[in-house]
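Subgroup meeting minutes
Present: P.N., E.W., G.H.
Scribe: E.W.

1. P.N. recapped why we're keeping a running log of single-chain structure predictions: easier to compare across weeks, and new members can see raw inputs and outputs side by side.
2. G.H. added today's entry (193 aa).
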Amino acid sequence: RLSHKRDSVWLGQHRLAAAKFLGVSVYYIKDNILRSDISMLNSNQKNWTSMDYINFYTIEKKDAYVQLSGLMNHYPDMATSALISLSNSECKRNIQMLKDGNLEVLNINHCREICELCKDLNKRFNSDFVFDSRFPLALSIALNDENWKTETFIEKIEANPRSFVRCHTKEQYMEMIEEIYNRYLSKNQIRLR
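Output recorded in log:
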């Protein structure tokens, strides 16, 4: 004869198989759930967005998420994906790290510099595409070029505002920024590709 515990496991497996066969949901209770288990449990749900994870880990007072939330509050027009990418060391958006609570915010000053420049460009040229996720990433690459001068870029846009347009990819934005900046320059050009 099977023990009571083994009996219930055996019956549970049959209930699960029957529920799968009938296509009905199975409800169960998990004892001793921790707050840290909530994000793991919801990672299997399609309805949790990046913002849900950011909010959850911010409430849990994880430093990187608190910093990221601060950036999002200060720059509400900026795409969340751009802020995530700009603020980490590799300038890449790693959704799995975000979900697992392992996000690192290391380039906060660089991120703020990009956001401030985007705000300024939008104010000057009424170009809301600067808050799209691809433009700030391209601009970040430009700012890392040793020949970059923000004043020069702004002057070049003012001289030819029709060249400052919405693009579809980060690479197209990089090409646009490079073409605008390098126009009429024989030396100290930037190279983004």
